[in-house]
Amino acid sequence: xxxxxxxxxxxxxxxxxxxxxxxxxxxxxxxxxxxxxxxxxxxxxxxxxxxxxxxxxxxxxxxxxxxxxxxxxxxxxxxxxxxxxxxxxxxxxxxxxxxxxxxxxxxxxxxxxxxxxxxxxxxxxxxxxxxxxxxxxxxxxxxxxxxxxxxxxxxxxxxxxxxxxxxxxxxxxxxxxxxxxxxxxxxxxxxxxxxxxxxxxxxxxxxxxxxxxxxxxxxxxxxxxxxxxxxxxxxxxxxxxxxxxxxxxxxxxxxxxxxxxxxxxxxxxxxxxxxxxxxxxxxxxxxxxxxxxxxxxxxxxxxxxxxxxxxxxxx
Length: 315
Ligand code: MN
Ligand code: MN
What we know:
Elements: E1 30-35, H1 50-57, E2 64-65, E3 70-71, E4 78-83, H2 91-107, E5 111-116, H3 121-133, E6 138-142, H4 162-168, E7 178-182, H5 190-197, E8 201-204, H6 205-209, H7 213-224, E9 229-234, H8 256-264, E10 271-277, H9 289-306
Parallel strand pairs: 1-4, 1-5, 5-10, 6-7, 6-9, 7-8, 9-10
Antiparallel strand pairs: 2-3
Helix pairs in contact: 1-9, 2-3, 3-4, 7-8, 8-9
């Protein structure tokens, strides 16, 4: 790890938060894992450059998280694993590569925080997590979309179908999962009804915003219970004024502070894995605000991992 007082934070090769780029066989608490894949996008491509942009924006992340009162680095082994192998142009093969590559990460005992990549990659992640858990995992998702369509242009493997495929494969436990933040024009009411019919609990963005972070946290805990649980964050849940660099933007999304507060409300929960997806840097502003926000979302996940198991206390 590079001391920010010894060398300016903008120097050196860009790894996530200046963590060492290593693939140790054990002794790791958290591995940051890039998945530079965007063949599964339906509108604006570019998320293949997400991991690179998020890493670059992450160098200003400092160790101490004041809101959760935790040092996310000191005394904990956090490495940048680098990127998993992908196959541009072939989503189905890439999902299999991700399942294999992430399985290798999980065998070290590390908890992965994956930087996408379009949302298709979550199917590979969930395969790896369910294989490790030996049962389907609950999903806590913040996203403008439910991603439970059956197919688009005849394609069954793309970023809008991942959670339906995951239910079909028996790797996700919909009755223990909560999808929140959905908004924007749909093809019809069935878009969200289908997600509910699959067994998911769905909160639209308006319904989510009506909850305080504490109420949201309670709702999530009640839903998940004691299931192994994965936390997913699609950057398009945040308003495109603050996160323009994404493939499928929808207006009237969360403010950044709302998104961070909902994440912090989950403090104490023990997640088996995390991801931040759909950051497409070609559409970012000159200050790279989307990549910066995504880096900070990953930082919140690091903090959640660091305080997992800590008794609940008011934020
Ligand atoms: Mn999504
Ligand atoms: Mn989305």
